[in-house]
Design goal:
The chain is an alpha/beta fold. The protein folds into 2 domains: 127 residues, Rossmann fold (3-Layer(aba) Sandwich), CATH 3.40.50; 220 residues, Glycerate kinase, domain 2, CATH 3.90.1510. The protein has 12 helices and 15 strands. The strands form 4 sheets. Strands 3-4-5-6-9-10 form a 6-stranded mixed beta sheet, with helices on both faces. Helix 1 crosses helix 12. The protein is elongated, with a radius of gyration of 22 Å.
């Protein structure tokens, strides 16, 4: 019996890798003869780096770069098992959780560190990049990242602007000539499920600015500045990019990557491809996936649905094991062989999260007993 375990994280309690290894342990207990592959998944947000390093037997490179507030921080990026592809998780270099609540202000945050990580990887000969865009603290349109990579943005006095959101409205000229020449040799794949354009009522500033600490007044200023910034870039490149789906992702970082020739892809699909999920699923008798809570929203492109679709394309059944099953979970049954919540008694959310590992292990043991008997 061959089992592929490809879960998302149970946010706030277990990483995707921890979920996968816990289910694997349960199967080894109840079906020791089974061959079990753990292929942890992510959708481009938190956990993307850990997931891809584990799945491809890659290595993490520890380094120092500018954090979201511009101070030097210890961070890192990954190099996949192929030795040719770097993975950068925005949540670990310009992430919202890295900024204390009292200091959250996207007028002052920067993506400069993202550019520094890319530059360092370029120096190691890397030319292929996977970028997970989720969880950013920024709304600078990728200004900081572009500056770190050599693009020059000047104000009306001819001085370079600061690499922060507040500078967007001060830019009067853009020069791409000093962009690092190695950038022309690069391929960037961006994991993002955000479809927002860059500006306007559905753009980066109006949709996500307040979550990052902006006041309503600042949201208006950021959107106005973003349009100025984008217009200048579009003129310089002779391209129209502002309205492209995903340009507004990660406070406009999606737009900056589009300007650098990147392709934006659905997060789950990109991560699954990079981890080689199809190769494992082809050999599977059963596929197991899960997430913190599954409900009707899972049907709107969430990771477990993508796993089930990959499995179905090879005629393999998928079992869903999630922390909880929420409203409309019965709508999931046409897509999964069976759906399970790991909690087995009335508890508070805090208690459920604290005991998620042991509950998951017990639930997975029961499922292992069932399907190992079915296979005999």
């Amino acid at each position: 019996m061959n089992i592929v375990i490809a879960p998302d994280s149970y946010k706030g309690s277990l990483s995707a890798k921890e979920v996968g290894l816990t289910i694997q342990e349960a199967f080894q207990m109840e079906a020791p003869e089974a061959k079990v592959w753990v292929v942890p998944m992510a959708d481009g947000g938190e956990g993307t780096l850990e997931t891809l390093l584990y799945s491809t037997n890659g290595t993490k490179v520890e380094t120092t770069a500018s954090g979201p507030l511009g101070h030097a921080i210890t961070t890192g990026y990954g190099i996949l098992g192929d030795g040719r592809t770097a993975v950068i998780e925005i949540a670990q270099i310009a992430g919202l959780t890295m900024v204390p609540d009292a200091e959250r202000n996207p007028m002052q945050t920067t993506t400069y560190g993202v550019g520094e990580l890319i530059k360092e990887a370029l120096g190691k000969g890397i030319r292929n990049f996977i970028i997970g865009l989720g969880g950013s603290a920024t709304n600078d349109g990728g200004l900081g990242m572009m500056q770190a990579l050599g693009v020059v943005f000047q104000d009306e006095e001819g001085k370079p602007v600061q690499p922060i959101g507040a500078s967007l409205s001060k830019i009067v000229s853009v020069d791409f000539a000093p962009l690092l020449p190695q950038m022309k040799e690069c391929q960037f794949k961006i994991a993002s499920d955000v479809k927002n354009p860059l500006c306007g009522s559905n753009g980066a500033s109006f949709t996500y600015g307040s979550q990052k600490g902006a006041s309503q007044e600042q949201v208006v200023l950021l959107d106005k500045g973003m349009r100025n910034f984008a217009d200048l870039i579009e003129q310089a490149l002779q391209q129209k990019l502002q309205q492209m789906p995903g340009a507004g992702a990660a406070g406009g970082l999606g737009f900056a990557f589009l300007a650098l020739g990147a392709t934006l892809e659905p997060g789950a699909q990109l991560i699954a491809n990079a981890a080689g999920l199809d190769r494992y699923v082809q050999q599977a008798d059963w596929v197991i996936t899960g997430e913190g809570q599954s409900d009707y929203q899972t049907l709107y492109g969430k990771l477990p649905l993508h796993i089930a679709q990959v499995a179905r394309s090879y005629g393999k059944p998928t079992i869903l094991i999630s922390g909880a099953l929420g409203r409309g979970h019965e709508q999931l049954l046409p897509h999964f062989f069976s759906c399970h919540a790991i909690t087995h008694a009335p508890v508070t959310l805090q208690e459920a999260m604290a005991s998620s590992k042991e509950n998951l292990y017990f639930c997975a043991r029961n499922i292992a007993r069932l399907i190992s008997k079915k296979n005999h």
